[in-house]
Design a protein that fits this description.
Chains A, B: One of its GO terms (molecular function) is alanine-glyoxylate transaminase activity. Two copies of one chain form a homodimer. By secondary structure, chain A is an alpha/beta fold. Chain A contains 13 helices and 14 strands. The first copy, chain A, has helices at about 25-30, 40-60, 75-85, 100-110, 125-135, 160-165, 215-225, 235-245, 255-270, 275-295, 320-330, 360-375, 380-390, and strands at about 15, 65-70, 90-95, 115, 140-145, 145-150, 155, 170-175, 195, 210-215, 310-315, 335, 335, 345-350. In chain A, helix 9 crosses helix 10 (about 275-295).
Chain lengths: ~400, ~400
């Protein structure tokens, strides 16, 4: 217990093209350096209102119940599942990626029964399979992952999925961690009851306050639970007192993270949400074209390609961990390995928010091509670089 | 869902002398503006190690299990209670303040039974009462509040309390939210098994990553639970994979909040923890003397006075809410009202971390005296100001 001698904070200057966090815009960093006001200050209440309004815009929803949860994306996920799923209820979850498995785990801890609808890792759910699962299990809650960060798959046919669930009076929870602010997402139009996200993906905001939205009907279910949810910290009926009209103290909000989220969402509003989706398609499209021009594959079909998270196939004989290390050591460039069923099979390359820029994509394709070549893959680095230059 | 027009972030410039957050040091604000690295980056792993080492220093512990929990103080509180208390176990909690009640609520949600040891709001626990409660209930877990933010009471006799608990083989959980970094606290020497805190009190760090420490024995209890804890997000057996040697992904750590906490703790180490406790006693002592010189009372006895949170008696006939508004509107100065049994009885004046400075104390005593006088109290503002000037 001697007095530790720890040097001044000086982390390396990385370019973040992994599954998140993404590069943070300088305006958001500056917002985080703003001196604090109290979490019950009238000035902060106004900042809360503005943040909620901006969040509704990004989610494409009029839901009154749209808030940042005081924690990282997994906290907004547990707030959704832990409040909506009541003990003894059944939740239907997908098996086509890491985050469906996490949904199952959270539902069980909430006291729920879990049933599954299957699809392979790297493919989306088929609506027919979802319909079959509903007929077989009659679940109370249906969770699906709109943008699977572990596989780079975007779930198409969302309105069809929510339609099936609502025909069976189930509540729909959508994991939008890697889609909010980067990939087309229309909570109201697509009839999603509950959606949660992380701030550190396509919003390019440091993690710590995480978006969550619930429809009035979903919130009514939460407020009329027989037993309280098993987490006090994430109890939405208590948070209602703070974020609602009453402004009652529940816990100390992460003031600085709300400042940051507000600024990140201002950038979304300034750009325009649809223009922002388009920018992600354009820049990630150049990334995809560049990788393919080098002779390297991208895993998912074009039909369910997820611009914000690109699953690059690891060429035969290449050590994926070595490539990741080469990029970090040689270029200060972060990407990530595959998870679960796709470990060793894919490299996960994010293209999110402020990271979805020509400079980042250009660096990524050249550096990745070079590293793959150096590690024994047969890739045409020049063709990749040229394709990116033409596209951007 | 029109594009919202939200102005640039420009909160008022407050002086924070409430129950937290406190004023944040410019170096900590600057750390929050640092660009991010990934939460699995080797550079971040080093930052995690340094933060843990600094936390151990502040807690006065060698506990390996010393981490920041990814959330505000209530998250570290729920991580402590939700992991240690197993379904069917009994937790003994105090009734002498708001936060004992919150302990009870969290223990119930964890599946525990709750029993109580009584003391009035505004007084500490009496060890004899704790011993009686142990004899009567034989609880598995004993929680107490070292620094009660709702009443301004510091619990003395901590080694006596932990001794009683250990004689009965109970695990001791201490709420140190408002003591860590400001008031004498010796986790190892006092034999506290589990302690949690908030960063936004005496550490003067923005909320969002909250200190928690567990002894090896307490962690062994957590790791040998029959059923997993009811929160996935706060499951310490899973967090062990991330903060331990394995560095496995659990959730995305709030990178920026860890940067901030590290910097706030560096300031603690530079000052020296014992010198820092002394500074709190000195500056809060001047505050206390100034308030008393004006003819206004401070609630708790000197014996259990809590320097970081001063419970100023509301003079007869004075509207406490009006005084609070006057200070905010007229001086950009934040203090807070009483809670629960002490609502309307006390004003809560913090003196924490970077707020525990002569300039803040001087402003506080003069402004508070003036506001009380303007609202009808018989106070000697000049005597208060003079006393503060002499003491500081």
């Amino acid at each position: 217990m001697d007095r530790p001698e720890v040097p001044e904070l000086a982390p390396p200057d990385r370019t973040l093209m992994g599954p998140g966090p993404s590069d943070v815009h300088p305006r958001v960093l500056r917002a985080m350096a703003t001196p604090l006001v109290g979490h019950l200050d009238p000035a902060f209440v106004e900042i809360m209102d503005e943040t909620q309004e901006l969040l509704r815009y990004a989610f494409r929803t009029d839901n009154e119940w749209t808030i940042p949860v005081s924690g990282t994306g997994s906290a907004s996920m547990e707030a959704a599942i832990g409040n909506v799923v009541e003990p003894g209820e059944t939740m239907l979850v997908p098996t086509n990626g890491y985050f469906g498995g996490r949904m199952a785990e959270m539902a069980r801890r909430a006291g729920g029964e879990v049933v599954e609808v299957d699809a392979p890792w790297g493919e989306p759910l088929n609506p027919a399979d979802v319909a079959d699962a509903f007929d077989e299990y009659q679940p109370d809650v249906f969770g699906f992952v709109h943008a699977e960060t572990s596989t780079g798959v975007r779930q198409p046919d969302v309105p069809e999925l929510t339609g099936i669930a609502h025909d069976h009076d189930a509540v729909v929870i959508a994991d939008c961690v890697t889609s909010l602010g980067g990939v087309e997402l229309r909570v109201d139009e697509w009839d999603i009851d509950v959606a949660y996200a992380g701030p550190q993906k396509c919003l390019s905001c440091p993690p710590g306050a995480s978006p969550l939205t619930l429809s009035d009907d979903a919130m009514e279910k939460v407020l009329s639970r027989e037993a309280p949810p098993r987490s006090w910290y994430l109890d939405l009926s208590l948070l209602e007192g703070y974020w609602g009209d009453e402004r009652a103290y529940h816990h100390t909000a992460p003031v600085t993270n709300v400042y940051a989220l507000r600024e990140a969402l201002r950038l979304v509003a300034e750009e325009g949400i649809e223009r922002r989706w388009e920018r992600h398609r354009e820049t990630a499209g150049a990334l995809k074209a560049g990788v393919e021009a080098m002779g390297v594959g991208l895993e998912p079909d074009d039909e369910y390609w997820l611009p914000s998270l690109n699953a690059v196939s690891v060429p035969d004989g290449v050590d994926d961990a070595a490539v990741i290390d080469d990029l970090l050591d040689g270029y200060d460039l972060e990407i990530a390995s595959g998870l679960g069923d796709l470990a060793g099979e894919i490299l996960r390359v994010g293209c999110m928010g402020h990271s979805a820029r020509p400079a980042n994509v250009s660096l990524l394709v050249s550096a990745l091509g070079t590293a793959l070549r150096d590690r024994g893959a047969d890739v045409d680095v020049a063709a990749g670089a040229e394709t990116v230059a033409e596209r951007l």
